[in-house]
């Protein structure tokens, strides 16, 4: 009997051994420990690394990592974009460009937008994989948001940012990351990336060789705070920039990548190079001579993922003794953790985000969210009483090169949608049936008309209102290779909008007489609007407003909603008022340090109603170091229309041992008030808001007086000149 049992056991063991061997040989990797969700992530990662050859390891660290069929690992492309909606992929909701989201000053709204984007991202990924597609832009790792500081209006990619202020960039960037990555305790919904680390904002043409020089004070006061905020928010990825900072390429910058990011901030996610930035090591910055040396330098610098073509040369770098396989394993381990956090090696039924499908793509709910975001992003720069218009006037004349343009809805890094509502379409959909609306383009986008006959502008004289849609688009500003009409690689070294547009607006103004002319301006950066402000009765800055842009513009023009956007960046009167573009010192830049009076200040934006601020109160007049205080103010809608107000808190250190900002934004709250209604708005002023950044980049507290400003804008006198209510002011002393 024992002999029979023994034989049976031997047969069973043989069958099991054969099945396991057959499973491994056939690519069925279900039995591998790295496939076991019950094991710790570090153990799973190490098991997977131990099964890879050196060549396979190298290719897993490239953005278009191929399949490892013998282990059942499919190909994965790490490169994806979601700046203001899923970019460069399938049909998705197109939200307003990032700079427009910055103009909302609304972190709750931006988190809602990012959550909708990540729903669509998972749905797109799940649908693509179900159909056997694993192309670029179908993965779950998104290289967004761009939290660089828009320090100079000449930078063509400034439209991708949330503006010039580190605090505003920090709160909106954090909200966006939280929305993208989700709140599941085990799985990331998607992986977000903070880019471009660090001190990166042009010139676009020189980015592959440029060295940005920044003092320790400017680094820690302006360029690094938003990155620190996103690291604290557990952003999964950091993208290192093309340029050098203070003499070292950003993707091989020991101070930035090791001393600050890893050691000081304890960042534990992965670092990705900007695309082909490692090639710049030997073709732009000339810090190495060969591809193998570039690969080794990047590994030793802590770059986990190469977007580009350098890391396939890692095996040769090992062979040449430039780097060890153990060093490669260390960087690969950090990278692979992201895949495990996304659940890419787990059964789909374990991951709640696997349930998102085509039903969650391009939904009506997301469309309405895009419209709401566009509404809140629109900044009214001028209004002499022309707006809002009634929607039942006898005749409207819509004109200008951007009225029917899809391009001005999109900005850059955009998605696509089958229902992009142009500004003309939005306006036409909002008027009553008895009203007439006529349209003529009137002038070309960026050059004079070849035909001297003008059949367009006379319409302004026989119309109750003329709406001229002017400005710029992504063909004039953006990334180096995308702005096909730009002779300066996407940067805007000419601060003006095309002169032919100004000439045409002059004709419209002359023809209109007493009839109002409303200028609707598109674009993603500051521009010279002095003549537009002079000629038009009302001016709306609508940025690149997304798929619902036309409807949102109509909602504001016809008074369905009151404009409530605020400028997230200063509009200087002239580029002559700024330091040279290549100068990264903050002296003379942004609302904090600019001495010249701007055309439009940071934080500026008009409403259809008026708000009064009164009764500012501080909980303490004297504060000991390390203690906080409360600041409050009463806000009253003194106009005749319900609207939202953007209440802003600024703090100023009156006497400092080194140059300090005139004042700094440290709080934002949106409040909706009906006519006659009031609400008390409070902010906590923390010790961090009282800190000064010294020349060594250290944050210190210095005794003395501080001013607190509460209002709907910065305390700049120019805001009052333009029609905004003066802010309330109070003083406290730090002992």
TrEMBL record:
It comes from the Bacteria. Keywords: Hydrolase, Signal. Residues 645-714 form the Fibronectin type III-like domain. Pfam families: Fn3-like (PF14310), Glyco_hydro_3 (PF00933), Glyco_hydro_3_C (PF01915). Gene3D superfamilies: Glycoside hydrolase family 3 C-terminal domain, Glycoside hydrolase, family 3, N-terminal domain, Immunoglobulins. This is Glycoside hydrolase family 3 N-terminal domain-containing protein. One of its GO terms (molecular function) is hydrolase activity. Residues 1-23 form the signal peptide. PANTHER family: BETA-D-XYLOSIDASE 5-RELATED, SUGAR HYDROLASE-RELATED. It comes from Autumnicola tepida. InterPro entries: BXL, Fn3-like, GH, Glyco_hydro_3_C, Glyco_hydro_3_C_sf, Glyco_hydro_3_N, Glyco_hydro_3_N_sf, Ig-like_fold. Belongs to the glycosyl hydrolase 3 family.
């Amino acid at each position: 009997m024992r002999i029979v049992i023994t034989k049976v056991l031997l047969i069973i063991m043989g069958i099991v051994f054969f099945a396991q061997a057959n499973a491994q040989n056939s690519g069925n990797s279900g039995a591998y420990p790295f496939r076991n969700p019950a094991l710790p992530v570090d153990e799973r990662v190490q098991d997977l690394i131990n099964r890879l050859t050196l060549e396979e390891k190298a290719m897993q660290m490239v953005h278009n990592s191929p399949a490892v069929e013998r282990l059942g690992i499919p190909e994965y492309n790490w490169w994806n974009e979601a700046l203001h909606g899923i970019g460069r992929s399938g049909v998705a909701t197109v939200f307003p460009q990032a700079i427009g989201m910055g103009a909302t000053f609304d972190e709750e709204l931006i988190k809602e937008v990012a959550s909708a984007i990540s729903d669509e991202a998972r749905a797109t990924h799940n649908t693509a994989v179900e159909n056997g597609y694993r192309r670029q832009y179908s993965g779950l790792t998104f290289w967004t948001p761009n939290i660089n500081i828009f320090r100079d209006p000449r930078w063509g990619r400034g439209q991708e940012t949330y503006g010039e202020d580190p605090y505003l960039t920090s709160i909106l960037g954090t909200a966006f990351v939280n929305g993208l990555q989700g709140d599941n305790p085990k799985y990331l919904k998607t992986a977000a990336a903070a880019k471009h680390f660090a001190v990166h904002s042009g010139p676009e043409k020189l980015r592959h060789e440029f060295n940005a020089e920044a003092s320790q004070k400017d680094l820690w006061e302006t360029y690094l705070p938003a990155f620190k905020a996103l690291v604290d928010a557990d952003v999964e990825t950091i993208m290192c920039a093309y340029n050098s900072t203070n003499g070292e390429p950003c993707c091989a910058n020991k101070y930035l990548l090791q001393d600050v990011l890893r050691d000081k901030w304890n960042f534990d996610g992965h670092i990705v190079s900007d695309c082909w930035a490692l090639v710049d090591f030997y073709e732009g910055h000339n810090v190495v001579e060969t591809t193998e040396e570039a690969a080794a330098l990047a590994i030793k610098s802590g770059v986990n993922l190469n977007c580009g073509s350098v890391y396939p040369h890692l095996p040769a770098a090992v062979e040449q003794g430039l780097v060890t396989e153990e060093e490669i394993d260390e960087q690969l381990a950090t990278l692979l953790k992201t895949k495990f956090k996304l659940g890419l090696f787990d059964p789909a039924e374990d991951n709640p985000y696997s349930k998102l499908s085509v039903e969650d793509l391009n939904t009506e709910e997301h469309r309405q969210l895009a419209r709401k975001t566009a509404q809140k992003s629109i900044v009214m720069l001028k209004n002499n009483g022309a707006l809002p218009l009634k929607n039942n006037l006898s005749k409207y004349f819509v004109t200008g090169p951007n009225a029917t343009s899809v391009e001005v809805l999109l900005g850059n890094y955009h998605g696509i949608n089958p229902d992009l509502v142009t500004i003309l379409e939005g306006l036409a959909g909002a008027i009553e049936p008895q009203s007439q609306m006529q349209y003529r383009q009137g002038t070309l986008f960026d050059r004079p008309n070849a035909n001297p006959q003008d059949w367009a502008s006379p319409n302004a004289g026989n119309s109750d209102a003329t709406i001229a849609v002017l400005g710029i688009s992504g063909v004039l500003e953006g990334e180096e290779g995308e702005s096909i009409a730009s002779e300066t690689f996407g940067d805007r070294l000419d601060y003006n909008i095309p002169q032919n547009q100004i000439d045409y607006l002059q004709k419209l103004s002359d023809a209109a007489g007493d009839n109002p002319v409303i200028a609707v301006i598109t674009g993603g950066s500051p521009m010279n609007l002095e003549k537009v402000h002079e000629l038009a009765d009302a001016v709306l800055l609508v940025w690149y407003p997304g798929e619902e842009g036309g409807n949102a513009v109509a909602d504001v023009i016809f008074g369905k909603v009151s404009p409530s956007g605020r400028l997230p960046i200063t509009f200087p009167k002239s580029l002559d008022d700024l330091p040279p573009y290549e100068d990264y010192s903050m002296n003379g830049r942004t609302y904090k340090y600019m001495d010249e009076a701007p055309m439009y200040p940071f934080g500026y934006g008009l409403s259809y109603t008026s708000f009064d601020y009164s009764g500012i109160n501080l909980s303490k007049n004297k504060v000991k170091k390390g203690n906080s205080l409360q600041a409050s103010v009463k806000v009253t809608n003194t106009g005749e229309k319900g609207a939202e107000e953007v209440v802003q808190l600024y703090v100023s250190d009156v006497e400092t041992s080194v140059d300090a900002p005139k004042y700094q934004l440290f709080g934002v709250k949106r409040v909706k008030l009906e006519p006659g209604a009031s609400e008390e708005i409070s902010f906590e002023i923390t010790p961090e808001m009282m800190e000064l950044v010294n020349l060594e980049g250290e944050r210190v507290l210095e005794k003395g007086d501080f001013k607190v400003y509460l209002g709907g804008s910065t305390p700049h006198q120019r805001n009052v000149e333009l029609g905004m209510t003066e802010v309330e002011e109070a003083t406290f002393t730090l002992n």
